[in-house]
Amino acid sequence: MSSSTTETTSPQGFSLEGEAYVEAIIERYRQYVNPGLARLMQFGGFGDVEVSAEGCVLTTATGAQYLDFLGGYGVFSVGHRHPKVVEAVHRQLDRLPLSARTFFCEAQALLAERLAQLTPGALQFTFFSNSGTEAVEAALKMARVATGRTQFVSTEGSYHGKSMGSLSVTGREKYRKPFEPLVPGVTFVPYNDVEALAEAVSSQTAAVILEAIQGEGGIIPAKPGYLTAAREICDRHGALLIVDEVQTGLGRTGALFGVDHEGVCPDIMTLAKALGGGVMPIGATIATAPIWERIFGENPLLHTSTFGGNPLACAAGLATLEVIQEEKLVQRAAERGEQLLAGLRAVQQEAGGAIVEVRGRGLMIGVEFAVKDVAELTINGMARRGVIAAYTLNNPKVIRLEPPLIVTADQVDTALRAFREAALEAISLLEGLEESVE
Ligand SMILES: *Cc1c(COP(=O)(O)O)cnc(C)c1O
After folding, report:
1. For the packed helices 372-384 and 409-437, what is the interaxial angle rounded to 10 degrees?
2. Which residue has its alpha carbon closest to ligand 1 atom 10?
3. Where are the beta strands (DSSP E) in 16-132?
4. Rounded CA separation 189/200 (Å)
5. Which of 11, 115, 217, 347 is the most exposed place for a label (fewest CB within 10 A)?
6. Are 220 and 192 in contact (CB under 8 A)?
7. What residue owns the CA closest to ligand 1's atom 6?
8. Are 311 and 102 in contact (CB under 8 A)?
9. What stretches of 84-137 adopt beta strand conformation (E)?
10. Contact 422, 381 (CB under 8 A)
11. Distance from the CA of 219 to the center of ligand 1, in angstroms?
């Protein structure tokens, strides 16, 4: 963590500076946002206020600079404030930020066309929304109407969002239970288990929903053949295959889409996080023409969103897709991913049994610790060394590393050094504690 001159000029014109400013903002989180979350963030080593960011580097109110190896859970694939995305959004901002909702919108038309060109198979039409969970909601509604069936098969540990429908297919009891009854008819099977999937899918199944790599489940890549098998199982029963690429999409895994590793074509694909280029929120649900005919054929307004497909978000999306292509970010994700994986595996060797596994694809990488507390302490230790990481929501033993795809080899080395020191420190600290207890 390097300290430089503080730059705390508040965009809201707030008068305090430095530590007093930080305390005043955190106090408002305690009073008006979420006290428990405030505690959690401070405990994690993030008791500071973000002020600005560029590329892979985030600057806080106390003047500290961090390498962002969380990347907004996959939001910042082209980095923070990529000039091309910022410029495209500025251009649109100065003309027409939000749609008047009666006329046609250029940015939406062009982005839908581009997505149809880039996505695999017969995926053609796009419904735009504002987040990942909305993209999944739309996918579930489409699957029901398109098949006339009501049942879904999802996987344990999966994450598809926290609105009622998406939550209903999210594979973690802890987040579902308090809100039951949820959408009925969902069966959960273990991820990567072809037999269990084959057994769960029937002629009642509207769709199977899967991630190409389980993100919040602990960065668990699909085993070779799993997605292909899922495709075959769906076809056998006339069920649709929804692949949730909200986190894996647009280069993150070293392929443009997670399904590209296997050449599998889903019937419905969801995108969000990276699509807005780290500048605008956007969600997208892309499906085939026959599905579109079923859902929108009679009533083109059957599913809508006021802000979905707005000009600012679509301008950001178009610019983002251009940047990913121009800067060869898919290939760079694969290369930097290899470097990061190799470096982490070397630390795993040093750590004895404390690090159970290092896994992932491209720049979607997870490190599984034997003990949850070691993972937490490592995240904290990395933060103190100026590198941001986080654990996965459904599996706190796993630290996830998802830096922007523009990350350089030097930045990867810097993060690896911080990880090594923090992990070894955390391991010896907890070993010491255990001994003193004994
Ligand atoms: C983040 C995520 C979502 C939910 O996206 P939000 O924008 O937070 O609603 C859904 N699916 C996957 C795979 C995700 O990683």
Report:
1. 130
2. 160
3. 50-54, 57-60, 64-68, 125-129
4. 7
5. 11
6. yes
7. 132
8. no
9. 125-129
10. yes
11. 14
The bridge status of strand 268-271 relative to strand 283-287 is: antiparallel
- Asked about 159 being catalytic, the answer comes back as yes
The DSSP H or E segment spanning 400 is: strand 395-401
Considering the candidates 68, 226, 267, 273, report the single residue annotated as catalytic: 273
402 vs 215: CA distance, rounded Å:
10
Q: Could you tell me the CA-to-CA distances from 258 to 117, 170, 249, 252, 331 in Å, in that order?
A: 16, 19, 6, 8, 14
Locate 111 and state its tokens. 């982005």
Residue 52, SS3 per DSSP: strand
Q: Phi/psi of residue 127, each to 5°? A: -105, 125
78-118: per-residue pLDDT in tens? 999 999 999 999 999 999 999 999 999 999 999 999 999 99
Say if CB 166 and CB 140 are below 8 A apart. Answer: yes
> From ligand 1's centre to the CA of 270, what distance in Å?
9
pLDDT value at residue 148 = 98
**pLDDT at residue 438, as a whole number:** 56
Candidates 331, 217, 207, 219; CA nearest to 269 is: 207
Element (H, E) at 423: helix 409-437
Query: Given pLDDT bands bounded at 50, 70 and 90, which one contains residue 132?
Result: very high
Pairing mode of beta strands 240-244, 268-271: parallel
Asked if 397 and 77 touch (Cβ cutoff 8 Å), the reply is no
Is 277 within 8 Å of 319 (Cβ atoms)? yes
CB atoms within 10 A of CB 162: 15
197 in Cβ contact with 188 (< 8 Å): no
CATH topology (fold) of 83-326: Aspartate Aminotransferase; domain 2 (3.40.640)
The Cα-based distances of 327 to 24, 243, 410, 411 in angstroms read 41, 26, 18, 17
- Report how far ligand 1's centroid is from the alpha carbon of 69 (Å): 18
Tell me the two tokens of residue 391. Answer: 């654990």
Closest CA to 402 of 417, 384, 418, 415: 415
Mutation pick for ligand 1 pocket among 75, 77, 130, 136 (CB with most ligand atoms within 8 Å)? 136
Collapse the DSSP code of 391 into the 3-class scheme (helix H, G, I; strand E, B; otherwise coil) and give the result: strand
Q: Which amino acid is at 252?
A: R
What residues does CATH 3.40.640.10 cover in the chain?
83-326
Per the CB < 8 A criterion, the answer to whether 131 and 160 are in contact is no
